[in-house]
Amino acid sequence: MSRVEDPRVDAATMDDLDAVAELWVDLARGQQRHGSTLLAGANREAAREWVARGIVTGELLVARPDRDADPDGDDLELLGFVGFSLERGGYERDHTRGTVSNLYVRPERRGEGIGAALLAAAEAALADAGAEAVALEALVDNERARAFYTDHGYEPTRIEFGKPLGDGTEEGGPEKNGTEKDETKRDGTENRGG
Predict the structure, then answer these.
(1) Which fold has domain 8-156?
(2) What is the pLDDT of residues 121-147, one digit of tens each?
(3) What pTM, to 2 d.p., does this model score?
(4) What is the rounded distance in angstroms from the CA atom of residue 49 to the CA atom of residue 5?
(5) E strands, 36-148, where?
(6) d(CA 46, CA 38)
């Protein structure tokens, strides 16, 4: 895809709350094919709370179509979003670090520079807030995301190891009781459980 004119990146407002929460659910659903264990629909309310907190703190940005480049475009359609924050509390560090979280662009708009614009805006906001470095996470199986971040100057600095305990079908697990609805299975097919 070709690069669009720079999208408009703004601080999210309360008018964006529901739309960003739904995009977060799409993000979580899509990440399941890369090994994420987050349940999409089951976390909708938690996502709304995260979005509301980001709006109130000014730590959530959204990308919209540039009205000048596309005067007939739907100004209300969000193209993507990104959350960010300074690391607070915890251990003392030798520098102030910011974190970027939940960078998401609608799948049909990827490859147009929207993610790069969101990432650059989050980095600039973190630098303005005093961050000297930025950290973020990507799932190891998400090669496209890892390549995107590498292309934007990020380098791996830490590896997280995981190990399942048991066979994954213990009491209450979604694989055994089949209660999770509208989730994407690890193989990318939809689970429309009852």
Answers:
(1) Aminopeptidase (3.40.630)
(2) 999 999 999 999 999 999 999 999 999
(3) 0.79
(4) 32
(5) 60-64, 80-86, 97-105, 133-135
(6) 11
Rounded Cα–Cα distance for residues 137 and 125 (Å): 18
φ, ψ of residue 33 to 5 degrees: the values are -70, -15
Residues 6+ apart with CB under 8 A from 39: 28, 174, 180, 183
Which parts of 91-173 fold into alpha helices (H)?
A: 114-128, 143-151
Contact 102, 85 (CB under 8 A): no
Domain ranges of the chain: 8-156
**Residue 181 DSSP one-character state:** E
Low-confidence ranges of the chain (pLDDT < 70): 1-5, 68-76, 168-194
CB neighbourhood size of 39 (10 A): 18
Q: Which of 193, 163, 154 is nearest to 175 (CA)?
A: 193
- pLDDT one-digit tens code per residue, 34-62: 989 888 899 999 999 999 999 999 999 99
Compute the CA torsion angle 164, 83, 9, 49 (nearest 10 deg).
100
Calpha distance 90→96 (Å, rounded): 12
CB within 8 Å of 109: residues ≥ 6 apart: 4, 79, 80
